[in-house]
Specification:
This protein is of the alpha+beta class. Helices cover 45% and strands 12% of the residues. A hairpin with a 4-residue loop joins β6 (310-317) and β7.
Length: 379
């Protein structure tokens, strides 16, 4: 159900005995994990919405304090399991900056290929489940079929399909071969052919448009207030992407665009992510074309790493937005503190304001369009 003007429509003067509470989650399938929304309703209109988190807390940051830097490496891909490769390699790059480790050129290109394939697979899963939440089963089946091809390609060099530990301080664990590159090219060709089909399936569907157009609008003030990043920010017209704003790795060598829209609603967030898949294909194609020969590690590496004392911050662009690692070193081989800045936490924090004045049926579309992954919130 679409609300023409969802802001400030809540009947604040309605009698309290006409209000009631509804728990959406933590078992509701559209919550995509153990998120609970405590909704205060007047009829089907949302008066207040309170996200309740913590049902899957795993204490990753606390675990970092009693492990060495290298032992914490597998934890990173389990923070956001859909951007596992990006998080894993981000931690490696953060440590390489601190330790002044030079990464071989070939490893840099391989990392870029792996990161962008991981981004596409994350967006495909979001696309399929978002449409499934809104009642569209067919796109879900197509998206998971395509995502499976990407997982097969990444599995060839990483040995994993979801939670990767492919990066090492200084490079990657395994070199890519011709079969991997051919598989990646085939995946790109397949995705490019599928995108027009995806759009024809859903973009002009009257039900989909009614559920998304003008729903869940996020304005500039709201975006700044909560530090929202990623597709929700770009869907409101702000072309901020860490790969461009603060280039890391070798992203400054590639030609790609930052997709934006101006409406800031569910439809705009949908369109931005579809465009981002196309841009990731462009980056992978350029990386494969320019892949140099050479080693994938800088040579003999130490087994224990002791960064100098100090505080360090490093950020990347995950599939959901700005992911940062704040690392505090006391000079030993165990971190004193690792604080993770995850985009889902900031993006979800805006829901009390975004959901106010909308209807319960809109909640499915709005939360789905944000693409929240609970494990990076309950970290």
């Amino acid at each position: 159900m679409k609300t023409p003007n969802p802001i400030d429509l809540a009947p604040a003067s309605a009698p309290e005995d006409e209000m009631y509470y509804l728990n959406m989650g933590p078992q509701h399938p559209s919550m995509h994990g153990v998120l609970r929304l405590l909704l205060k309703l007047h009829g089907e209109e949302i008066i207040t919405a309170e996200p309740v988190i913590g049902y899957a807390h795993r204490a990753h940051e606390k675990m970092a304090e009693n492990r060495s830097y290298i032992m914490f490496l597998p934890n990173t891909s389990r923070v956001d399991y859909l951007s596992g490769m990006i998080y894993n390699l981000a931690y490696c790059e953060a440590m390489e900056k601190i330790l002044d480790i030079e990464v071989p050129e070939r490893a840099q290109y391989i990392r870029t290929i792996a990161n962008e394939l991981n981004r596409i697979s994350s967006h495909l899963l979001w696309f399929g489940t978002f449409l499934l939440d809104l009642g569209g089963v067919t796109p879900f089946l197509y998206c998971f079929d395509d995502r499976e091809e990407i997982l097969e390609v990444l599995d060839r060099v990483t040995g994993s399909r979801l939670t990767y530990s492919y990066g090492r301080f200084g490079g990657v664990t395994m070199d890519v071969d011709d079969a991997f590159l051919d598989g990646a090219r085939a995946v790109l060709k397949r995705i490019r052919e599928r995108i027009p089909m995806y759009l024809s399936l859903v973009h002009d569907n009257v039900i989909f448009r009614e559920r998304c157009d003008g729903v869940g609008v996020m304005t500039g003030d709201l975006l700044r207030k909560y530090g929202i990043t990623g597709p929700p920010l770009r869907a409101a017209g702000v072309a901020y992407d860490v790969r461009r704003a603060e280039p890391y790795g070798i992203y400054d060598r590639f030609d790609f665009e930052i997709p934006t829209r101006t409406a800031g609603d569910c439809m705009a967030r949908f369109e931005v992510r579809v465009d981002e898949m196309e841009q990731s294909c462009r980056i992978v194609e350029q990386a494969i074309e320019g892949l140099p020969e050479g080693p994938i590690m800088p040579g003999r590496m130490k087994k224990r790493f002791k960064p100098p004392k100090g505080e360090f911050y490093f950020a990347v662009e995950s599939a959901r937005g700005h992911f940062g690692m704040y690392i505090v070193s006391d000079g030993t081989d165990n971190p004193s503190r690792i604080k993770l800045r995850t985009p889902s936490f900031s993006n979800l924090s805006s829901m009390p304001e975004v959901l106010r004045g909308t209807f319960v049926a809109d909640t499915i579309a709005i939360v789905g369009s944000i693409d929240v992954v609970l494990p990076e919130i309950d970290r």
